[in-house]
Design brief:
The structure is a single chain. With 360 residues, this protein is mainly α. It has helices spanning 2-29, 54-72, 78-104, 112-130, 161-186, 192-213, 232-253, 262-279, 285-289, 291-310, 320-326, 331-359; strands spanning 145-147, 151-155. The chain is built from twelve helices and two strands; from the N terminus they run ααααββαααααααα. Strands 1-2 form a two-stranded antiparallel sheet. The longest helix has 29 residues, at 331-359.
Length: 360
């Protein structure tokens, strides 16, 4: 538990103290945000605000995890390294996208092909590696079984190991793409994605701690309700470090934002959420814990689908937070209410998670 607290505390301090330094660096370089021309007119005043703040979130997370491992006197597990690899790899793709926008002075960054190629490389390599590295108990970081609250009986390797690997790569990359895009769409108002993310990753800290205490690898906890997760403690440490980084960054990202996380941060956080859900065997549960992100993605899908099928729009603008913005809600009001919704879904997900263990 001390290692978890250390990861959160160190990453919080690094983000809190490091963000203003990074802001000064970006201002000197004139690395500012470009605003979409079809968005709410109120956002035009945000043009030029420093972006790529996700660099601080990623850096603070890495420092927090490293400090925790030094305190524990051991190296990070394969699960921790994989989660950090996915987060950092997607963050790098986002960084290249953000940097391209700044360099070319436009609101569009990497080409779709380049972005897909980058995300695909990181996602595929993560998925392949996640089925390697068995520990002394022959448990690998991930499993070919589809998971809800734990692994289910739906095994993607039903027709052999090769087929299972291929199907798992497809499934894992669907989750990675879905979550990275979900957080990216949510990052449209000051502090919205950051605050929602810290709530979600806070829930995953609790998931990891509970799985550790009820791990099948602990003789005292082994039983019908134990969890087969390979490295629950390290997953809790990673989640705590990300949560702490988000808290420190939110101090500067809250309205009026002094810095934006950019695609660097949103893709990294989405990738981290996907990675934690896969490695903690809670792939479907993540859709409940991160319910706000799901709602925002669905609003975009509904808007596009409705316009293509009927020529009419359901919302004044998608994603959903922009609809309320154009309806006259203040930005801070929207953000706070969406944080409450994020908290509700996180609590609901934790309730479902605990209830399953009670009856198992």
């Amino acid at each position: 538990m001390i290692a978890v607290l250390a990861a959160a505390g160190v990453s919080l301090l690094v983000a809190l103290l490091g963000t203003p330094l990074f802001i000064k660096f970006l201002v000197r370089r004139n690395y500012g945000q470009f605003v979409r021309q079809d968005g709410p007119t109120a956002h035009f005043t945000k043009r030029g605000t420093p972006t790529m703040g996700g660099v601080v979130i990623i850096g603070a997370t890495l420092v927090g995890v490293a400090a925790s491992m030094i305190l524990a006197g051991r190296p990070p597990s394969a699960s921790a390294l994989l989660a950090l690899y996915l987060m950092t790899g997607l963050g790098l793709v986002g960084f290249l996208d953000d940097f391209t926008k700044i360099r070319k002075q436009r609101s569009l960054g990497l080409t779709a092909r380049a972005k897909i190629a980058g995300q695909g490389f990181v996602g595929i390599s993560f998925a392949v590696l996640a089925l390697q590295f068995p520990n002394a108990n022959s448990r690998t970081p991930a499993s070919t079984r589809i998971s809800f609250l734990r692994d289910t009986n739906l095994d993607l390797a039903f027709a052999g190991a090769t087929v299972g690997l291929i199907l798992f790569v497809i499934w894992a990359n669907f989750l990675i793409t879905a979550w990275s895009n979900a957080v990216n769409l949510t990052d449209g108002l000051d502090g919205l994605a950051t605050g929602s993310s810290l709530i979600v990753f806070g829930a995953y800290v609790l998931v990891g701690i509970w799985q550790l205490n009820q791990s099948c690898q602990r003789a005292a906890a082994a039983g019908p309700g134990c969890y087969e997760v390979r490295d629950p403690q390290d997953l809790a440490i990673v989640a705590a470090a990300i949560m702490g980084a988000c808290v420190g960054f939110l101090w500067w990202n809250a309205s009026p934002a002094k810095i934006f996380m950019g695609d660097t941060g949103s893709l990294a956080l989405g990738g981290a959420l996907a990675g934690l859900s896969i490695l903690s065997r809670t792939e479907i549960l993540a859709a409940i814990i991160g319910g706000l992100f799901v709602i925002i993605v669905m609003s975009d899908i509904i808007q596009i689908g409705s316009f293509k099928l009927t020529g009419k729009r359901v919302f004044k603008m998608a994603p959903l937070h922009h609809h309320f913005e154009l309806s006259g809600w203040g930005e801070v009001t929207i953000v706070i209410r969406f944080w409450l919704i994020a908290g509700f879904f996180a609590a609901l997900g934790m309730g479902v998670f605990y209830a399953e263990w009670v009856v198992s």
